[in-house]
Amino acid sequence: MSEKFDVIVIGAGPAGYVAAIRAAQLGLKTACVDAFVGKDGKQALGGTCLNVGCIPSKALLDSSKQYYNIAHNLPVHGITVEGAKVDLATFIGRKDKIVKQFTGGIGQLFKANKVTPFFGKGKLLKNNEVEITGNDGAKQTISATNVILASGSVPIELPFAKFDNKFIVDNAGALDFTEVPKRLGVIGAGVIGLELGSVWKRLGSDVTVLEALPDFLSVADADIAKIAAKEFAKMGLNIKLGAKLTKAEVKGNEVALTYEDKDGAHDLVVDKLLVAVGRRAYSDGLLADDTGVKLDERGRIVVDEHNHTGVNGVWAIGDAVRGPMLAHKGSEEGVAVAEWIAGKAGHINLDTVPWVIYTEPEIAWAGKTEKQLKEEGVPYKVGTFPFAAIGRAVAMNEAIGQVKMLAHAETDRILGVHMVGPGVSELIAECVVAMEFKGSSEDLARIVHAHPTLSEAVHEAALSVDKRAIHKGN
Fold first, then answer.
1. Residue 295, Cβ density class (10 Å: 0-12 exposed, 13-18 middle, ≥19 buried)
2. Are residues 172 and 271 located together in one domain of the fold?
3. Using CA atoms, how far apart are residues 129 and 21, in angstroms rounded to an integer?
4. What secondary structure, in 3-state letters, does the chain show?
5. Whole domain around residue 415: which residue ranges?
6. pLDDT value of position 2
7. Domain end: 225, 257, 277, which one?
8. What gap in Å lies between CA 396 and CA 337, rounded to an integer?
9. Which of 74, 181, 259, 383 has the fewest CB atoms within 10 Å of its CB?
10. Same structural domain for residues 8 and 146?
11. 146 and 284 share one domain
12. Pyridine nucleotide-disulphide oxidoreductase dimerisation domain: which residues (predicted)?
């Protein structure tokens, strides 16, 4: 007879491991199944996010920023450094240490909360049984009253630019180059393409980004995207819009590309090619044919507003379901589902999930864009404020970008906040709190913000909604 649990979570990424820990905290006997293998060949909890996504990319972004600052930002402070160079082995090694620290940390959290980890690929069978196939091919079956599917997502592979993990790579490969590529091609000007393109550009790569869409960063507010595009161009990222890759062929130690835009076909030769055209829900081998769990046309697990699949005791969360593919969204769904299972009041509001791109400058937003409000016919007011008028930003020599706030024209409720500039990954949190509590722009305008801080840009943008910003003309 198989071992029985209250909850089995399939997947130990930021959605799955958080769901498992919260379920265990609530007194439920919990297991978590995951097959991710670390560089040392052992189980590495944390999924894509901790192993080859959020955490390692931020480590490299920070390291590359330090190097970039030496030549580009320190001289204005009167600081000159001669002969700076990058030891790439140490550069990558620091990232690996951080990854190991955090993946090991999840193991300790499992131990502390009495979550039972299983190493292998989990497959949901009928009657809420889960078959686990180890890396050695051995199988075992466990069962539970509730199963939470948190299988995550994987990079989309182009049929004419298949990953070889040497010349044509996905996000994981772009974290482990053994030398700085002289010429780096990036397909896709989304979050991954911009962040990893920035890392290698700062270290000296000649980076060309091909984006098939005609508009830059169309998911963000147009005004914010326009400012960001201008800054990336200054940095030296060569971003080509409306450029669709049609061919990628490895020739010797190079990759020969062909792409098309409004002017016709063009050739481009690079040393490495990062394909970052998006991610797809990973449900391969996750479900037996008779489970009753349904997938939509994009391979995502179909769920209701409470992340339930419609099959008794089966739930799904994170990148494998609808909504933005963001680690923090998955984590909060994990908490909510664990609490629903335990009979408590879980909560997740997809309308206030913040987005962040950790480039230089950073980009962050929550809620509706101006374009969306126009399309939906919602009356709105706009308030903006530039970081160029913020004393702290000027003192930091990072006076780039602005905060843009959108509020309902009649109720003044905050509908969206969009930012590009220094530290906006942190500033957006204040706006999310205000939106979650259905706050108005006047609420933020009347709150005292410390001076001098970057957060004053949020305060002034809120004042600007009613044309009463103090430090700029309205």
1. middle
2. yes
3. 20
4. CCEEEEEEEECCCCCHHHHHHHHHHCCCCEEEEECCECCCCCECCCHHHHHHCHHHHHHHHHHHHHHHHHHHCCHHHCCCCCCCCCCHHHHHHHHHHHHHHHHHHHHHHHHHHCEEEEECEEEECHHHEEEEECCCCCEEEEEEEEEEECCCEEECCECCECCCCCCEECCCHHHCCCCCCCEEEEECCCHHHHHHHHHHHHCCCEEEEEECCCCCCCCCCHHHHHHHHHHHHHHCCEEEECCEEEEEEEECCEEEEEEEECCEEEEEEECEEEECCCEEECCCCCECCCCCCCECCCCCECCCCCCECCCCCEEECHHHCCCCCCHHHHHHHHHHHHHHHCCCCCCCCHHHCCEEECCCCEEEEEECCHHHHHHHCCCEEEEEEEHHHCHHHHHCCCCCCEEEEEEECCCCEEEEEEEEECCHHHHHHHHHHHHHCCCEHHHHHCCCCCCCCCCHHHHHHHHHHCCCCCCCCC
5. 361-465
6. 78
7. 277
8. 42
9. 74
10. yes
11. yes
12. 353-462
347 flagged as catalytic? no
Structure tokens at 284: 């391969």
If asked whether residues 48 and 148 sit together in one domain, one would say yes
pTM strictly above 0.90: yes
What CA–CA distance (Å, rounded) separates 214 from 260?
Answer: 12
Mean pLDDT by 10 residues, the chain (474 residues): 92 98 98 95 95 97 97 94 96 97 97 98 97 95 98 97 96 97 98 98 98 97 98 97 98 97 97 98 97 97 98 98 97 98 96 97 98 98 98 97 98 98 98 98 98 98 97 84
Partners of 129 in the β-ladder: 143
Query: Do residue 11 and residue 147 come from a single domain?
Result: yes
CATH number at residue 176: 3.50.50.60
Check the annotation: does 436 bind a ligand. Answer: no
In this structure, what CATH number is given to the domain that contains residue 441?
A: 3.30.390.30
> 326 labelled as ligand-binding?
yes
Tell me if 328 is assigned to a ligand binding site. yes
For residues 309 and 286, the answer to whether their CB atoms sit within 8 Å is: no
Q: Is 211 annotated as a binding residue?
A: yes
306 lies in the same domain as 398:
no
Amino acid identity of residue 89, one-letter, is A
Q: Binding residue per annotation — 327?
A: yes
Residues 357, 355: Cα–Cα separation, whole Å: 7
299-335 burial: b if 16+ Cβ within 10 Å, else e? ebbebeeebbbebebbbbbbbbbebebbbbbbbbbbb
345, 375: one domain: no
Residue 392 identity (one-letter amino acid): R
Rg (alpha carbons) of the chain, rounded to whole number? 24
Crossing angle of helices 424-436 and 456-465, rounded to 10°: 50
Catalytic residue, candidates 449, 451, 459, 471: 451
162 inside domain: no
Q: Specify the number of domains making up the chain.
A: 3
